[in-house]
Amino acid sequence: MKLLEGKTAIITGASRGIGKAVAIEFAKQGANVAFTDLFYNEAAQETEKEIASYGVKAKGYASDASNFADTDKVVAEIVKEFGAIDILVNNAGITKDTLLMRMTEDQWDMVINVNLKSVFNFTKAVQRTMLKQRSGSIINMSSVVGVSGNAGQSNYSASKAGIIGFTKSVAKELGSRGIRSNAIAPGFIITEMTGQLPEDVVKEWAGKIPLKRGGTPEEIAKTCVYLGCDLSSYVTGQTLHVCGGMNV
Ligand code: NAD
């Protein structure tokens, strides 16, 4: 039996990387998938095709997750097109890494808006539909550095720590209505985001990880399947570290 048969999911920032892997894993498990990214470009069209190849409904939408009005509009379109929202994966995220001494106001605001405000925007926009359904699973992509902090990532760590506080509050507010809210804290995952790092930095990171390697987007996607489906029906308000033991 497929774990997400008949469910509808929204995944933000899913043209590539972890978001794309989540979209494909969800499709393999029978979910219909609506996904967003900044542009409906070639990468988004390719992702849409790949999702649809598993025989589910798939549609990509251009939308800036950090923009409140844009988010409200796209969620209304998705509800009209798909009829329900069972799972929301708040995945869109960026980095603007630099030491605090050099960090500009713009670098701070951009990271907070794309990584944290987007989670508020989408959760607020799907809330009414999930409340009506009296069910839903919200999955927020945090990071190990949201728990541990990291030099050169004060903006990013703050955004990811904020996500954890938000996740717990939503779990407490909406639990009585059958809506669950959890966060995932990935460690070092090999995607285009981390692909920009020099090889020696990657080697150093891997050396510190008990499992001695970076994770794959698919390994994060499988955790999303767990949190999205009924296997995790009594799990809410939690942060699952998927990091090869990096944060223990
Ligand atoms: P990525 O850069 O490969 O993909 C991020 C996607 O989000 C891109 O498609 C991008 O276009 C999209 N995006 C950016 N800004 C957006 C916006 N305003 N609105 C809509 N979409 C937007 O990154 P990734 O490595 O796949 O990371 C995905 C998530 O996982 C992020 O939230 C990231 O912080 C988190 N994460 C990644 C790692 C890692 O090691 N890769 C570790 C911990 C957490």
TrEMBL record:
CDD domains per the UniProt record, alphabetical: BKR_SDR_c (cd05333)
Question: Pfam families from the xrefs?
Answer: adh_short_C2 (PF13561)
Among PROSITE patterns, the record links this protein to: ADH_SHORT
Its UniProt entry gives the catalysed reaction(s) as:
a (3R)-hydroxyacyl-[ACP] + NADP(+) = a 3-oxoacyl-[ACP] + NADPH + H(+)
Q: What class of enzyme is it?
A: oxidoreductase
Tell me the keywords, alphabetical order.
Fatty acid biosynthesis, Fatty acid metabolism, Lipid biosynthesis, Lipid metabolism, NADP, Oxidoreductase
| EC id | 1.1.1.100
Q: Which SMART domains match?
A: PKS_KR
Q: Which domain of life is it from?
A: Bacteria
Can you say what this protein is called?
A: 3-oxoacyl-[acyl-carrier-protein] reductase
Q: Which organism is it from?
A: Paralabilibaculum antarcticum
